[in-house]
TrEMBL record:
<dbReference type="InterPro" id="IPR027417">
    <property type="entry name" value="P-loop_NTPase"/>
</dbReference>
<comment type="similarity">
    <text>Belongs to the ABC transporter superfamily.</text>
</comment>
<feature type="compositionally biased region" description="Low complexity">
    <location>
        <begin position="316"/>
        <end position="325"/>
    </location>
</feature>
<keyword id="KW-0067">ATP-binding</keyword>
<dbReference type="GO" id="GO:0016887">
    <property type="term" value="F:ATP hydrolysis activity"/>
</dbReference>
<dbReference type="Pfam" id="PF00005">
    <property type="entry name" value="ABC_tran"/>
</dbReference>
<protein>
    <submittedName>
        <fullName>ATP-binding cassette domain-containing protein</fullName>
    </submittedName>
</protein>
<feature type="region of interest" description="Disordered">
    <location>
        <begin position="303"/>
        <end position="332"/>
    </location>
</feature>
<keyword id="KW-0813">Transport</keyword>
<keyword id="KW-0547">Nucleotide-binding</keyword>
<dbReference type="InterPro" id="IPR003439">
    <property type="entry name" value="ABC_transporter-like_ATP-bd"/>
</dbReference>
<dbReference type="InterPro" id="IPR003593">
    <property type="entry name" value="AAA+_ATPase"/>
</dbReference>
<dbReference type="GO" id="GO:0005524">
    <property type="term" value="F:ATP binding"/>
</dbReference>
<feature type="domain" description="ABC transporter">
    <location>
        <begin position="4"/>
        <end position="228"/>
    </location>
</feature>
Length: 332
């Protein structure tokens, strides 16, 4: 089973770095989520990993670059764009063509069509498929060679809630068999349920890499909720111990910088009654937004209710037209 090793990946578009000296590893037996804001370089990174873009650095799969793999679909399955197929070639024929090029038995085509819920539309033309059905056909192609590694860019695009749950279980099962999954998504709540490890980038540079639990624990949004009829006295005592304290409502404090045991000790020593101590764990969304705050490429400006829609935007704010133009130039 393959270990993915990316070392020193870099790519520049028009003099602007899209990916800069990016290195990380993806280990077998885990789903590794790939996160970053729009424009962070996620899609470019995946293309560099598969040799589809020219750039610096190397990526190996058990020590072998993708371009050197014999019958690559039997080693690495990839889905990097929506509807990656000829629109008028029938779905089954599309997969048969890929199978022939990679010495994959035709019987495997029917297996993946059944597995992906596409058997009833096997003779259909992809141009008639919805985005969700097109994603399923792309996934069928990725799974066709029964590979040891999957590299997927936003595979849940266009899927309904049942389809999203289905792909989560599919990828977790794939990883549980000892294989590797590297998957990007903007659905952070779904990534929290699916991923074991994370690679987080911003402006093409590595921000974090490791277990998802460690990433969430590093967030400042982790806190302890403390309820007391003597909340004012408790807040003063806790601040004296270096904690950061915020009053959420009368009698309820949010405390960071001390764990629940330490807060209980402070209260005991000060003869302060406690009615509740409850650790609050940050969400993946909170941890992600905090970690990437300085790496946001685009910042929206929300006008207060009642503002004149015809008034000019605040100084430094992008207008709708300029924002759209910049997004058109974005390289994910």
């Amino acid at each position: 089973m393959a270990v993915i090793e990316a070392r020193g990946l870099a790519k520049t578009y028009g003099g602007k770095p899209a990916v800069s000296d990016l290195s990380f590893e993806v280990h077998p037996g885990s789903v590794t989520g790939f996160l970053g804001p729009n424009g962070a370089g996620k899609s470019t990174t995946m293309r560099l990993m598969l040799g589809l873009d020219r750039g610096a650095g190397t990526t190996t799969f058990d020590g072998v670059p993708f371009t050197s793999l014999h019958h690559p679909m039997r080693h690495v399955g990839a889905l990097l764009e929506a509807k990656p197929f000829h629109p008028t070639r029938r779905a089954r024929n599309h997969l048969r063509m890929l199978a022939a090029a990679n010495a994959i038995p035709v019987s495997r085509v029917d297996e993946v069509l059944e597995q992906l819920g596409l058997a009833s539309v096997a003779r259909g033309k992809p141009r008639t498929f919805s985005l969700g059905m097109g994603q399923r056909l792309g996934l069928a192609a990725a799974l066709l060679g029964d590979p040891h590694t999957l590299i997927l860019d936003e595979p849940a695009n266009g899927l309904d809630p049942q389809g999203i749950q289905w792909i989560r279980e599919l990828l977790k099962s794939f990883a549980a068999s000892g294989r590797s999954v590297f998957v990007s998504s903007h659905l952070l709540s779904e990534m929290a349920l699916m991923a074991d490890e994370l690679v987080v980038i911003g402006r093409g540079r590595l921000i974090a890499s490791g277990p998802i639990g460690d990433f969430v624990k590093s967030s400042r949004h982790n806190s302890v909720l403390a309820r007391s009829p003597q909340a004012t006295e408790l807040a003063e005592a806790l601040r004296g111990r270096g904690a950061q304290v915020e009053a959420l409502e009368p009698g309820l404090l949010s405390v960071t910088g001390l764990d629940a045991a330490a807060i209980g000790d402070v209260a005991f020593d000060a003869s302060i009654r406690l009615h509740e101590l409850a650790p609050r764990t940050a969400t993946l969304e909170e941890a992600f937004l905090e970690a990437t705050e300085a790496s946001q490429e685009y910042h929206a400006v929300v006008a207060p209710v009642g503002d004149d829609p015809g008034a000019p935007p605040p100084a430094g704010a992008a207008t709708d037209s300029s924002t759209t133009a910049r997004y058109g130039e974005d390289q994910q």
